[in-house]
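Subject: Interface between my chains keeps coming out wrong

I've been trying for a while to get a sensible model of this assembly. When I model each chain on its own everything looks fine, but I need the whole thing in one frame so I can look at the contacts. Pasting all components below, labels as-is. Any help appreciated, I'm running out of ideas.
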Amino acid sequence: MADSVFWFEVGLIAMSVAVGVLGAILGLGGGVLLVPSLTLLFGINIRYAIGASIVSVIATSSGAAASYVKDQLTNLRLATFLNVATVLGALAGALLTSLLDTRWLFVIFGVLLIQSALLMIRQPDPSLQAAQAEEPWTRRLRLAGSYPDRVLGRVVAYAPRRVWLGFALMWVAGVLSALLGIGSGSLNVLAMGSAMRLPIKVSAASSNFMIGVTAAASAGAFFARGDILPELAAPVALGVLAGAWMGTWLMVRMPNQRIRYAFVAVLLVIGVQMGLRGLGIQVR
Amino acid sequence: MNTERSERQSRADLWTSRLLRFGVLGCAALVAVGWALSLARSPSEAAAVSGLTRGGLLPEAGPFPSLANLAEGVVAGRGVAWVVAGLMLLIALPIVRVGLTAVLFAVERDWLYVILAVLVLALLIFGVLMGRAL
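Reply #2:
Try treating it as a single job with all components included. I did that and got this:
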């Protein structure tokens, strides 16, 4: 009996480390990978999976953000501006929790992920495009910036576009974060990359920074409801942290295109999984 | 590019980075030690844990009904208490992070962003308080 519990814990940690690495590289915050893994692979009740997930989302975000800020990939103004949207969304989502049937969320999310994966395939990386004139709101909010790209070997300048569209999308991301206990990193990166035309490394790094803040907004509710189990959240969060640390080291050294391809592949797999789950089909 | 400003920016980035790193490490250490301590489980606790893999729900709401109980548990060296305390601090970390960015913006005299950061902070605190009411 004690044996199986031991292997259970070991398995949890191993899976969490893998999730942490992947999450940090793609700016996903791990929640989107963690909840399916915990429920489908380990058979854990979804309430506890979400609770453990929200904690590790905060852990990943904080751990990875430390490196990104130092490497100058994070745009603090952009993150702060967009966090207003995500936190407002998270609060709305926390209120909505009791009203919506989770199954529909799975389906919607699955569709959304597949849609975003397809969108990402078609677009070239914004960082490789020529610089364009700054939009009025970008200038007013002083959201433009630059970052040293290790792989390209030069400083890349960028200016977000359509900032209010990005704001609206981030509000939705906040709602989803609270409803599913995830970081909504994929929607963050999508909003920043496609709607706001930001380079993917800036999107991923800024997303990581914002995710923890968004998760903290709903974590209070999960904690109060008793959905955060110490015996589950502890090994999961520790594993994800270790993985995230390794992941950030890898991320700044990876070529831009490879990150995009990896992101697309992961989105597709998760999207299909989530959709099937919502439709009541269990993939084992 | 104003070199004095970018130097201040780099220092601000460094301090934010340090806060995050040490905050996370501190919480992780607390959680890790607590978890290790709690691994010496009684047979009934072990049974409850393995019940988790069958999608089960635990009967009680949580091991610590109040903050006073939690503090007692921490002092008594109960592993679970340390884990819970570490998790709570971990959740508080992003809130501190936003507070720090507000301070950094104030140092930069960027009042628009001080207001935005404070707004996020206020919303976060409101969220935590609201959570208890739900």
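Reply #3:
Confirming on my end. Chain B touches chain A through 69 residues (CB under 8 Å).
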